Each structure stands twice: as C-alpha cells, then as structure tokens.
Amino acid sequence: MRAATYTVPAAPGDHEDGECAVYFFGPGQGGTVDANLTRWIGQFQGGEKTAKTGKRSILGLNVTTVDVSGSYTGMGGPMAQSQSAKPGYRLLGAIVEAPQGSVFFKFTGPAKTVAANQKKFDEMLNSVAP
Known about the structure:
The structure is a single chain. By secondary structure, this protein is an alpha+beta fold. The chain has one domain (2-6, 19-77, 84-125). It is built from 4 helices and 7 strands, in the order ββαβαββββαα. Strands 1, 2, 3, 4, 5, 6 and 7 form a 7-stranded antiparallel sheet that branches. Strand 6 (86-97) and strand 7 form a beta hairpin. It is globular. The model has no long low-confidence stretch (mean pLDDT 92).
C-alpha cells in the first residue's frame, strides 16, 4: 500500500516533475528485496546495464539501494493505459528491512530533477528509525 507520495518539482531544463513514493505492505508482504530490485531495474530499457545497487545499515536496519537510469517504462499500475518510454529518466530506490515489515522508497523522474534532489532523498533515508 502506498503510504506517501511526494511531488518533486522539475529542475531547470526538465519538463516534468519527479515523484517519490513510499510503500508499506506489512510484515512479510511486498515481495523480496531481490524481486523488487529486479522489477525496478526492469522498468528501464537496458536498465540492467546502468543499475548500481548497494547495501548499508541505518540505525541497525539493513537497507538495499538501487540507482538506475535510461528510458523509463514503469509508469502507472495494472489499470494504467499503455504509455511510451520516457528517455532521460532516473530511479533512486531503497528498501529498508524493518522488524514490522519492509519499507520501500521509489524516487523517479527526469535525470536532472533526481540528481538535484538526491541529497534530500538520502537525508530522508537517513531519518528512518526502528
């Protein structure tokens, strides 16, 4: 379930805003870390070539991150109408493995907009507490 959605204003030169969504499904729900990374990377044409993943700990919580860019095809959900790929997009994602269930952070948008707000995304992740 989507717990929060943040609209991130477009950076100069970008024509669309970015979006940061936070999801929480409950204990044992939402899929595995690897399944979500694979899905997010697969939302970019050639994403497996550009994706960078990492692991870290925030206040004792395991956090897995992904940074992928290219032509984004992952807009909408199962009820969304088919849309063409959006070139020049980027996704910053993080999965925080918490005792009550994983929390999923997905920030997508034009590459300049995501880059201009990457520090804020990291600050948001660093504010997570058990």
